[in-house]
Every structure is written in C-alpha cells, then in structure tokens.
Amino acid sequence: MAAYVRRFPSCPLIPMFVSGEVVREEESADGATTVTERRCTVDVDAPRLLKRIAGVDYLYFTQKNSLDRRQRTLHIEAYNQTFSSRVLVTEHCSYTVHPENEEWTCFEQSASLDMKSFFGFESTAEKIAMKQYASSISKGKEIVEYYLKELEGEGITHVPRWLPPIAATPPPPGGRKENATLSDTLPGPPDDKLDADYIRRYLGELTPLQESCLIRLRQWLQDTHKGKIPKDQHALRFLRSRDFNLEKAHEALRHTLTWRKQYQIDPLLDSWHRPQLLHDYYTGGWHHQDNDGRPLYILRLGQMDTKGLVRALGEETLLRHVLSINEEGLRRCEENTNIFGRPISCWTCLVDLEGLSMRHLWRPGVKALLRFIELVEAHYPETLGRLLILRAPRVFPVLWTLVSPFIDENTRRKFLIYAGNDYQGPGVLQAYISPNIIPDFLGGECQCEIPEGGVVPKSLYRTAEEMETEEARMWTDTIYKSASVLKGAPHEVLIEIIEPSSVITWDFDVCKGDVVFNIYHSRRTPQTPPHREAQGAHTLSHPHTPPGACSNNTQMIDRSWVLGQDYSRVETALTCREGESIQGSHVTRWPGFYILQWRFHGAGGAGGAAACSGSSLARVDDMLASLQGAPHRCRILYYTEVLQSQDFRGSMSSLESSHSGFSQLSSATATSRQSQTSSTLSR
User: Fold this and answer.
1) Coil, strand, or helix at residue 270?
2) What is the pLDDT of residue 75?
3) Which strand (E) or helix (H) includes residue 48?
4) Where are the beta strands (DSSP E) in 523-659?
5) What is the spatial distance between Cα 391 and Cα 394, in angstroms, rounded to a whole number?
6) Which candidate, 14, 310, 324, 315, places its Cα nearest to that of 147?
7) What's phi and psi for 170, nearest 5 deg?
8) Which of 189, 586, 618, 676 has the greatest number of CB atoms lying within 10 Å of its CB?
9) SS3 for 241?
C-alpha cells in the first residue's frame, strides 16, 4: 500500500494519467479505514479529429479507494464522468492478503464498457477504449514494482502493520521493551505451505504464485470432492495447461473428474483386455525411456492399417485402447519418478511415418483421430513432454493441416519433425534417446517388440449394426446414471427395503447447478412409472439396476401425499453446490420404501421450504418453464446401492462394495461427507 499511493497525483509510467486530485477523504476514528475519492484526468491517445468532434481534450473519471487496515484490503471503484450519458465505463480492483500465505498479495481486476452512442463513431471509440485499458493492465505489476524499488532505495523495507490504538489496552507489567518493533507482537505466517523438499522431489520448480494456485486448487478439491482427491501432480497438470489460471483449471479438472466417473476410466487398466486384433495389427507400444527419464512410446503409424482397424474394431474400441495407453503413461510416470528420484510428469512419443500415404487420409479414420486428440487434450493435459515425428513423407503436410488446428498451441511447440533420414547422425535423435535403445527399424541395435502391422483382412470387417451394438454396450456399461433436476420437477429414486438395518449408500456428483438432497421413508407403495427397475428401484435380492440404465427425470412421491402422514424425512436436507462430489450412507430402521430425492435449489428457495411441501409432482406450467429456461435445469451423476448390515464396513470415503471404482488419480483421505444416521424421524 505504501508503494501504491506513490502513483498519485501523477505517474510517469502511465503517460495518459495526467493527474489525480483528492476531492474527499474520510477516516474512521480508530484509523482502521480510509475512504479516498479522487477526480482523475486522463489524456486518451485518440485521433485529433475524434477529439475535436467530441469537443474534449481530456476525460475525467471518479476513483473511490476504500482501504481497510484491519482486514488488510484495498478496494477500488472507478467510473467515467465525461460522456456518462453516452458511454458507461466501470472498473473494480482489489488488493488482498493471500489466504494461504500472508506474505503474498492477491490482485484482482475487472471492468466493463457499455457503448450506447458516440457521434456515429461507436466502433472506433470502443477499440480505442479497449486498447488503452489493455495497455494500462499490462503495466499494473510493473508500476507497483517500480515504487517498491523506490521505497527500497530510500531504505524502507518494512512497514509495520496497523494495530488498534494502544490506549485501549493497558501496558504489560514492566512496560514494553524500548527497541521492540510492532512486528514482534504479531504471529508468524501460516504453516501451511508446501514443503520445499516435496516440491523438488515430486512436482518440480514452482514460483510462489504457482505454489499458491496449487494450494488453492487443492483446497477446493478437499472441500468438494471428499475422499477422492487427485494427487498434486495431476492437479498441477491442469494448472500448467491453463497457464495457472485457477478458474479455468478448476473448471477443466471438475469436468475430467465427472468424465472419469461416468465412463469408468479409473479401473480401465484392470478391466480393459485388448482384442487379439490389436495385438496383431496395432503398431504401437511402450519402449524403455528417453534421456530425461520420461517413458517412451513408439507408434509406427505409417505401417498401420487405420482403415482396417476402424472397420474391424470400431471407433469406440480404438478409443478405449488410446485411453488405456494414457492411463498406462500416468502409471509409468509415477514409477519413473520413484526410480530416478526427480519429478517425471510426462512422456515422450516417437512417431515413425515411413509408409504413410493417402490411404491413411481415409475420412472416417481422420475423424476418429481428431476425436481422440480432442479427448486426450481435454482429460490428459501436459502429459506429452515431446513428440518426435520421423521420416515424414510428402503427404504429411496434408495430414498436419487437418490435425494441427485441434492441438493446443503449447502442445504443438513440443513437436519435432524430421523428413527422410534427417533424424540420423549425432545431435538429432540421439540427443533425446540413448543409442542403445534406438529401435532396429530406425537403424539402432535394440530389438523392439512392437508389431510390424500389415493389412487387416477384410473378412474381419464388421457390419455397421454389429459395431453400433458393441459401442452402445461399451459406453453404457457403467454403474453410474445421469439425471436432470428441473425447477418444480425433482429427480427421485425408489429403494425397497425388506430387512431393517440394511444400509443405503450413495455417491453422486453435481455436474450443473445446485441441488438439495433429501431421503424419505414411506410404508405406502408409491405409484411408480413403468419399467420401475430401470429407474432405480432396489431390493436386497436385486442389489443394483442393470448397467447403463439411465433415468432422465422421475418422481415417485404422489401429489396427494402429505409429509408427516404418508411419508417422512429420515435425513436432514443437504444443499449441494455445483462441482461437489457427495458420498454417504443411511442405516434403515424399518422395512418399506425409501426415496432419494434431488431437488432444484435456486434463489427462489425451491430447495429449502419447497422441500417440505406435501407434493413433489411437477405441474405442467413448472415443467414447461423448466424446459425453456436453462438456468432452471441441474444435472447429476449418481450411483446407489443397498448393502446388508454385515457387508457394510464403515467409512464412506469409498462405497466399500465390489462395484466401487474411485479415481486412480486419487490419494486417500480420511474425511468424507457421511450422513448422520441419528436423525430425528417423523412418522
């Protein structure tokens, strides 16, 4: 703050900022807060003609700074006075202390521009405003650092923190040490930084800002994904791929966690069995490691019959294989980290294009390749350390033109392309791969066990109907179901309990919107829709619904039922926010029907008082309004299971059943959001 105030009344680093005149300043009685209002004069770099048409040489803004020394925050609001009836410019900035490390300062800035009219030059004025604002943003950090160095040059390296007036507190016996400083009375920084040895051993070099982003992302995961938190190495990949933009990394990681759960990616390495056709004709495989200790994957794409593989296996089978390769790559990175004693977070891929021709540009094959790239880019960011493309033929630029737009710019920088035999000789391929492991087909001495490929016999081709059936079974073979939760139309799952003391368990992700989760009990038989089993009913003899069964939106509680008479709530309502992952259990006391309900939670209180209403059946007007308005639609991904009491083993950090599959990316945690079974029951 001492550096910030030096930019007034004028700043040589911002030529457009002419002056800042204080028009009002107020300070609280204890000196904790100060509000300063300035009238700022700005000389915009605009064409002379436009200034003459507008009739002004300078623009005037009002800036209001609210400094709170107790909370250690500075909030800045600014808006334009000039042309305020034609143009509305608002800006909000804040300086705060980082919640994880009090030695760091957080800065946030946002602005808006509303161009109503400007003498017919609206587009020009908007471009000038955006250019000027972007220029100002780029210098923000530079300006603060400039004045910090100016303070250091004057010998000021420490500014004591504000404390309430001493008069309010009597001095301690014996008085205070004469040479004691104000900072001597303050607690030290919080002890929740990442350990330096841990960073160096498992994560690699991180700046303080990058470490801060990782801590904040990890905190979010601990708050919302109980019991299955991705390891720091994996969270760090998403941060790096988004240039440590915390919000973007948070959103991408949330989608990946939901995707992994929905498509059962976690147990893929154990459950996926490669068809014999892949063993015989897929020309790729793992082969030792490169000079940096990264796992090395070799793909002889030019020798692969891509059309034959797609026609014989189908796109989805090949996609499963590609995903298993990436899962294996993550596992090998962890192994190499332990072997070499330094962080290995990505792998190297060597692609041999000898034999590549126009037959590889078969349109369905290229389409499948683009889909694979899109999925890997989204869910396995920053796993490719280097891509060596060797013996690129003349047709390669055509394939590159089709594929490159779908590859992230940061990933494209890792591509090294060599035509013909340019890869041979010292300092080229040997700079990345040790000579003793270069495969024999590239002129090395190492025997490589990767298949040589060949043309897939057409007799093995499958019909479109056969592949469609197989692909549908493959992607719907999951224990998780998805459902929509609409405003006025909750989603409800019916569970029939025959034996008391059975345990109902649940695991769900809130993919979109906010919901309220309730559990009800009734001795009456609900009026269930057709195909009851496919919509989530459970009995102990049928512990779970068929794999892939998906109910979109179902209501079980009859409109005429009255809460407290026909059915009762057996758990306290739980509000669940978008992005949260919830696991829990309930030990049943009576036989009968239990209803798990997810209800829309919005500003109108639909998730609170409405949850207690006697009817949950949607009215026609509510349904129509819900379908027309996307903000009134939530989406959940859920799994429920009934266990007999002797099969239930306590902690719900896992569902503790043979069907549970939590992330291989996760590190174990001891906490979970488990419902309390001692809830007050109404009958």
Assistant:
1) helix
2) 92
3) helix 48-54
4) 568-569, 574-576, 581-587, 592-600, 633-643
5) 10
6) 14
7) -65, 145
8) 586
9) helix
591: CB partners within 8 A, 6+ apart: 497, 498, 499, 500
Question: 300: which 2 tokens?
Answer: 């002889």
Distance CA 281, CA 425 (A): 30
Question: What sign results for the dihedral spanned by CA atoms 373, 379, 384, 385?
Answer: positive
Sign of the CA dihedral running 366, 369, 373, 375: positive
Instruction: Give CA–CA dist 359/356, Å, rounded.
Output: 8
503-512 and 592-600 beta bridge pairing: unpaired
SS3 state at 296: strand
One of 3.40.50.300, 3.30.470.20, 3.40.525.10, 1.10.3720.10 is the CATH number of 267-459, namely 3.40.525.10
Q: How many CB atoms lie within 10 A of CB 447?
A: 7
CA distance readout (Å), 50 to 131, 330, 616: 16, 58, 62
- Cα–Cα distance measured from residue 257 to residue 384, given in angstroms and rounded to the nearest whole number: 20
Segment 42-58, tens digit of pLDDT: 887 777 666 666 677 78
- CATH class of the domain comprising 477-527+552-602+631-659: mainly beta
Cis peptide before 9 (omega within 30 of 0): yes
DSSP, collapsed to helix, strand or coil, labels residue 374 as helix
- Domain boundaries along the sequence of the chain: 1-154, 196-263, 267-459, 477-527+552-602+631-659
CA distances from 644 to 500, 505, 580 (A): 9, 11, 28
User: Do the Cβ atoms of 218 and 229 come closer than 8 Å?
Assistant: yes
pLDDT of residue 54: 66
Q: Which amino acid, one-letter code, is at 582?
A: I
Strand, helix or coil for residue 554: coil
Alpha helices per DSSP H over 304-463: 306-313, 315-340, 363-379, 396-403, 409-412
d(CA 334, CA 233): 9
Helix (H, G, I), strand (E, B) or coil at 315: helix
pTM of this structure: 0.54
- Are the CB atoms for 320 and 371 separated by under 8 Å? no
**Fold match flag (1-154 vs 196-263):** no
- The residue type of 287 is H
Distance CA 611, CA 593 (A): 18
**What's the CATH fold of domain 1-154?**
Alpha-D-Glucose-1,6-Bisphosphate; Chain A, domain 4 (3.30.530)
Query: What pLDDT does residue 352 have?
Result: 93
Kindly write down the DSSP assignment for every residue of 94-134, as one continuous string: EEEE-SS-TT-EEEEEEEEEEE---TT-HHHHHHHHHHHHH
DSSP conformational letter for 421: T
Residue given tokens 């066990």 in the structure block: 449
Given a contact cutoff of 8 angstroms between Cβ atoms, the answer to whether 370 and 408 are in contact is no
The CB-side HSE value for 280 (13 A sphere, CA atoms) comes to 12
Q: What is the dihedral of CA 479, 483, 485, 490, to 10 degrees?
A: -70
Topology of the domain comprising 196-263 = Helicase, Ruva Protein; domain 3 (1.10.8)
Pairing state between β 87-97 and 105-115: antiparallel
Amino acid symbol at 433: I
Query: Are 110 and 91 contacting, i.e. CB atoms less than 8 angstroms apart?
Result: yes
Dihedral sign from CA coordinates of 643, 646, 652, 657? negative
Write out pLDDT tens, residues 357-369: 888 888 788 888 8
Residues of the chain predicted below pLDDT 70:
48-54, 120, 135-136, 138, 166-193, 226-228, 470-479, 527-551, 603-631, 645-683
What is residue 190's predicted lDDT score, i.e. its pLDDT? 35
Helix (H) or strand (E) holding 481: strand 481-486
